[in-house]
Amino acid sequence: MSVDIKNPVVNFPFFLFFLLFSCVSHFCHAIDTIRQGESIRDGGETLISQGEIFELGFFSPGNSTFRYVGIWYYKTEGSPVVWVANRDAPISDRNGVLRIGENGNLVVLDGNNSIVWTSNASVQSSNTVAILLVTGNLVLSSIGSMGDTTKAYWQSFDHPTDTFLPGMRVLVSTVMGENHAFRSWKSANDPSPGDFSMGIDPFGSPQIVIWNQTRRMWRSGQWTGVVFTGVPNMTSLARYLYGFKISPLNEDGSIYLSYVLSNASCLLRFRIGWDGKEEQLKWEDGLGKNWTVVQSEPSNDCELYNFCGNFGVCDVSKSRKCHCPQGFQPKFPDQWNRGDWSGGCQRRTELQCKRKPSDAGGSGKQDGFKGFKCMKLPDFGKVESPGDSKTCSEKCMANCSCNAYAYITGIGCIIWNGDLIDVQHFDNGGNLMFLRLPQSELGSGKMISNLVIAIIVVAGLCFLCITVWLLWRFKRNMKVKGEVCSSIPTFNESKSKEFSTDLSVSAELVIDGSQVNGPELPLCNFQCVAAATNNFSEEKKLGQGGFGPVYKGELPGGQQIAVKRLEGRSGQGIEEFKNEIILIAKLQHRNLVRLLGCCIQGEERMLIYEYMPNKSLDRFLFDKTKQALLDWGKRFAIIEGIARGLLYLHRDSRLRIIHRDLKASNILLDAEMTPKISDFGMARIFGSNQYEATTVRVVGTYGYMSPEYAMEGLFSIKSDVYSFGVILLEIVSGRKNTSFRSSDHTSLIGYAWDLWNENKPMELIDPAIRNSCNPNEVMKCIHVGMLCVQDSAALRPKMESWRKSPAQSRLTSVAGIFVLFHLLDKVKTSRSQDWLIKEDFIFGQSFQSHYTYDYDLMT
Ligand SMILES: *[C@@H]1O[C@H](CO)[C@@H](O)[C@H](O)[C@H]1NC(C)=O
Ligand SMILES: *[C@@H]1O[C@H](CO)[C@@H](O)[C@H](O)[C@H]1NC(C)=O
Ligand SMILES: *[C@@H]1O[C@H](CO)[C@@H](O)[C@H](O)[C@H]1NC(C)=O
Ligand SMILES: *[C@@H]1O[C@H](CO)[C@@H](O)[C@H](O)[C@H]1NC(C)=O
Ligand SMILES: *[C@@H]1O[C@H](CO)[C@@H](O)[C@H](O)[C@H]1NC(C)=O
Ligand SMILES: *[C@@H]1O[C@H](CO)[C@@H](O)[C@H](O)[C@H]1NC(C)=O
Ligand SMILES: *[C@@H]1O[C@H](CO)[C@@H](O)[C@H](O)[C@H]1NC(C)=O
Ligand SMILES: *[C@@H]1O[C@H](CO)[C@@H](O)[C@H](O)[C@H]1NC(C)=O
């Protein structure tokens, strides 16, 4: 098409039309709402959500000629449809219209103007508006609360078709029963409801189920609050860290299952296909530019519901997939041997409790339990009121119809009355289940061989112990004076053989005889971490720590992680690794970096942390180009955050912890610039009444080590306070403590002290923040910093409680001063002249100076 510019008169109407058309089409692409009176016609008119993620309009699926109103991904490969309005009332021609009807509801009209679909909500306003949100939710509400999903009259998220999108909520209610929330299409060309559905079985502990009409086809296993027990891969970090959440109980007894993306810019969807397969798809924005299947269920025969029949156990790694557990035999042996497992298994011997006293052998011993590891727990478990594993076993024993029990962290006691249905044995993952067996089936025949094994094991252990002891004595005699090693934890990866090849969440990490990991610290598998970090590629490397490189990784859900990989097998690194796990797994605080998991496989030792987009404090503080990004307000918040983190370590956590390596590069900053203390490799735990210790191996960083620690190896909470003081002065001055070597002053501390003596402390302040700072606050910070870096540990304040002597208010703690800062904001007007610090502090005993300072916090 060419426009002849030589003849503008002839072409003017065409030009106008062209202008109008491009204007209209431009307008269409800009809107995401329809109001009363507006309409979307078949033939190119669509709504497009903000960010151009979703599009709403008319479409024909596959090679069907019927027209449907639906929502699909706007720009991604294949424009996958996530919702269909008139799924069972197609329009046969291209004259369809979507509009807001006179009663305020959304309606789809065909060419004859008859309604083929309506949102059919009870609408209280005649002036309604529908908006396609960035989440893919079409929301109908009154004009005043446009886009507010809580005040919506109707929303497409409440009437899903075959796709579960992040942000949707699925009702989990024992009153309503099974919720078949998502129903598949009939075929690739026909969106009308098919045979398969996906939803929630709310009974017991909720689980996700896929149904073929009304028959179960797959189930996820019970929800523990963290993972679904029947999805073994969920134990790996990839599935664990992001995603499913179950909301707390509502007043009406209902709860909701939802899926929360850790990175809102990821595109992720769950879909129940017309072939009965559920798929989790993720949009790959990299080179692939396509949807990839992250996970798919059912993925093998064993995943099919009750594949091996009642009491049968399915094991996908075996060539004969089904077997009967100990004490059981096939119900129909011929059928079973032909490979038809549907008959399941039955008990070889009746349970003692079922036998009448008159029966032969009826006077036998009571039934017992045998534990089976790595099991997918059976369906229809009954969750019993709280208790422990022992009361759970007693509860099961008390009722003869109880066949099995399990005690699961996050759920509690589950017992199974009746047949065990849909049981699997996993290679890794899964749970420990106890099966009730009569005494005769509990393996008394194997007792003898077990005894022999036990004796051999004990004898072997004794031999080993003696050898180790002898070696130790030998070594001790060789050394004149060695370091005390008894406090170093022993490391026991896992008790059971099944777990040791590929560790997963249910494996136990035992250090010093106590399990340190649990649902809150998953062990994750190596492949998963390798995949997340692009096989530890160079471009994912964030930096090099003392004990190995640190990589950035991204999980399938988009969550970013930092992976610290231990290099080689240096004994020292291993020690730090253990130390870090023991400590940080037990610590939870806003201002401490969070350990998300760890990985131990073969020679590999890795720690997985939350990723800190802003890296460490020193990258801002000592970089001339970035200094200005940290204005005084931010710096003050960082100081306060570090103080709170340290206060937690020293006082508020269950353990008393000395960090020993506090420095600006160990303070990480998250996206909101919240400081997080990291690197607990050198930290030490103190008993509640232990205040100091000595070490032969002085580790730490020059410039942050207190004199008594650097010289005598003496460390205590006061040595951390010293490091804190240094960081504080660095934050205020924007200069490294060790950057003064060439100048008149030996260090930042000496410089600060001289300025203080010359009565011009304000010169210490970083020029980049001179304008933004509050002089009063900065002064207080310098004061606190100087108190902290006194040579004498005794004179330094503690991070903990602050004292107020009756005669005069006297602050001797850093935390106290910060508490006071906040108090002061509130009581500024109340004129309490008592709030005074009168603090003596001595700095640098080599100077022999003594300085008294009246500090009026009210000014
Ligand atoms: C479309 O129709 C052709 C011929 O009827 C068929 O072979 C093809 O499989 C159909 N495509 C889909 C996606 O169903
Ligand atoms: C419209 O009505 C006519 C006559 O009732 C019918 O033949 C035709 O199929 C209808 N068209 C649509 C799109 O429903
Ligand atoms: C609208 O809802 C009412 C009850 O809520 C129902 O009786 C009616 O059939 C529905 N109408 C349509 C067109 O779905
Ligand atoms: C669904 O159930 C029907 C019988 O009700 C069966 O024929 C069909 O194979 C089942 N589909 C799948 C995918 O299991
Ligand atoms: C679990 O993950 C491993 C690798 O990460 C994969 O080979 C395996 O097929 C997955 N199993 C299931 C049941 O999805
Ligand atoms: C979220 O994901 C996008 C693309 O997948 C990425 O560019 C962005 O950095 C991620 N953001 C965060 C905070 O992880
Ligand atoms: C995207 O994936 C689908 C299915 O896996 C495939 O059919 C299609 O060709 C792929 N498209 C591109 C552009 O790679
Ligand atoms: C044992 O459990 C069954 C099934 O839940 C129940 O019907 C029966 O009352 C219970 N019996 C006893 C003695 O508690």
From TrEMBL:
Residues spanning the membrane: 451-472
UniProt cross-references to Pfam families, sorted A to Z: B_lectin, PAN_2, PK_Tyr_Ser-Thr, S_locus_glycop
Catalytic activity of the protein: L-threonyl-[protein] + ATP = O-phospho-L-threonyl-[protein] + ADP + H(+); L-seryl-[protein] + ATP = O-phospho-L-seryl-[protein] + ADP + H(+)
EC number: 2.7.11.1
Organism encoding this protein: Rubroshorea leprosula
Domain Apple: 353-439
EGF-like domain segment(s): 298-334
Domain called Bulb-type lectin: residue spans: 31-153
Broad EC category: transferase
Record-given protein name: Receptor-like serine/threonine-protein kinase
Primary localization class, coarse: membrane
Compartment annotation: Cell membrane
Superkingdom as given in the UniProt entry: Eukaryota
Gene Ontology MF terms in the entry: ATP binding; carbohydrate binding; protein serine/threonine kinase activity
InterPro entries: Bulb-type_lectin_dom (IPR001480), Bulb-type_lectin_dom_sf (IPR036426), EGF (IPR000742), Kinase-like_dom_sf (IPR011009), Pan_app (IPR003609), Prot_kinase_dom (IPR000719), S_locus_glycoprot_dom (IPR000858), Ser-Thr/Tyr_kinase_cat_dom (IPR001245)
Gene3D superfamilies in the cross-refs: Bulb-type lectin domain (2.90.10.10), Phosphorylase Kinase, domain 1 (3.30.200.20), Transferase(Phosphotransferase) domain 1 (1.10.510.10)
